[in-house]
Amino acid sequence: MKPIGGYFELELPTHQEYHSNAIALNSGRFCLEYILRCRKYSKIYVPYYTCDSAVEPIIKMGISYEFYRINKEYHIIDDITLSGNEALMYTNYWGLQSEYCTQLAKKYGNHLILDYTQAFFAKPINGIDTFYSCRKFFGVPDGGYLYSDIQVDFEIEQDFSYSRMDSLVKRIDLSPEQGYNDFHRCSEEFHHLPIRNMSKFTKRMMTAIDYEEVAKKRRRNYEILRKSLGGKELLDDDVPMVFPYLANDGQSLRKNLIQNKIFVAKYWPNIEEWAGKDALETWMANNILPLPIDQRYGVEDMQRIINTILG
After folding, report:
1. Which residues make Cβ contacts (< 8 Å) with residue 137, sequence separation at least 6?
2. CA-CA distance, 294 to 220, in Å (whole number)?
3. Residues sharing a CB contact under 8 Å with residue 224, sequence separation 6 or more, in sequence order
4. Statement: residue 68 has pLDDT above 90
């Protein structure tokens, strides 16, 4: 029975949930685990150039896996032929590889798994298992969406998110630095959680977002940087997660940006261990800097990034 009266909850606007037709779970990695538990694949081909959390569910499920290589255009360079009940997983890098994902879908069919955690606004391809992350694009504590026609044969409990809000609130009330440890504490928590349905709180937060405005700002910011720094032109439907800037000396530039309070993450420190220090993927991880272009920032912020890079 719906409660009436009493104290107010956090007040949020209401919009249409962008992925309202998807399966709403507690994180992108659990969307992948959902796929693996249901499809029962015998082997997964995974890119070297990916986050270790993408491999974590595969290891957890005890499934055999093999890494493959990509080139500077993020295209697969290894000759991969799937046999039996094998699958290939590919990442829509930065949200800029949707066209290539369509090519892979034609080649591998429903044995392709698409990691769209960096491509929240990219439309799923019919018949292809595709999963998304909420936290990479929005100020929410958790959440992931999955498009799949498989039905689970196991129970999924309800998640709760109220204990993961500290970093989000501290960033507003205090500073990014003072919420940083809370952010990582929240990230570490996912290593020990089971698959759960998206929390009511996160689902409510996801309906508070003006998705059209978010997409518009991200595209505008990307274009501002591209005109000064070069880079790939956006296709009509592209809404990037970041601006991938190729630096001559990524380590020095990253340090300089952070000193100027332009926080640039490193994707991903695990790659050198996997691929080796001389691998192209390791070079990419060190020298492709994901510059922030998200909906929090405007023209002046992008110009500040440009000035810091170009001097």
Report:
1. 120, 214, 241, 294
2. 10
3. 299, 302, 303, 306
4. yes
Q: Tell me the mean pLDDT in the region 35-63.
A: 96
**Structure-block tokens of residue 261:** 């309070």
Which one, of 186, 130, 133, lies nearest residue 160 by Cα? 186
**For 147, how many CA atoms within 13 A lie in the half-sphere containing its CB?**
22
**C-alpha to C-alpha distance for 193 and 163, rounded to whole angstroms:** 14
Contact 95, 240 (CB under 8 A): yes
What percentage of residues in the chain have a pLDDT greater than 90? 89
For the stretch 181-198, what's the b/e string if a residue is b when 16 or more beta carbons lie within 10 angstroms of its beta carbon?
Answer: ebbeebeeebeeeebbeb
What is the rounded CA–CA span in Å between residue 99 and residue 305? 28
Integer Cα distance of 170 and 177 in angstroms: 9
CA–CA gap between residue 255 and residue 251 (Å, rounded): 6
Over residues 114-136, the pLDDT tens digits come to 999 999 999 999 999 999 999 99
> Among 115, 118, 49, which residue's Cα sits nearest to residue 88?
115
List pLDDT tens digits, range 98-113.
999 999 999 999 999 9
Task: Check if the beta carbon of residue 54 is closer than 8 Å to that of residue 190.
Answer: no
| Angle, alpha carbons 109-46-26 (nearest 5°) | 85
Contact 291, 264 (CB under 8 A): yes
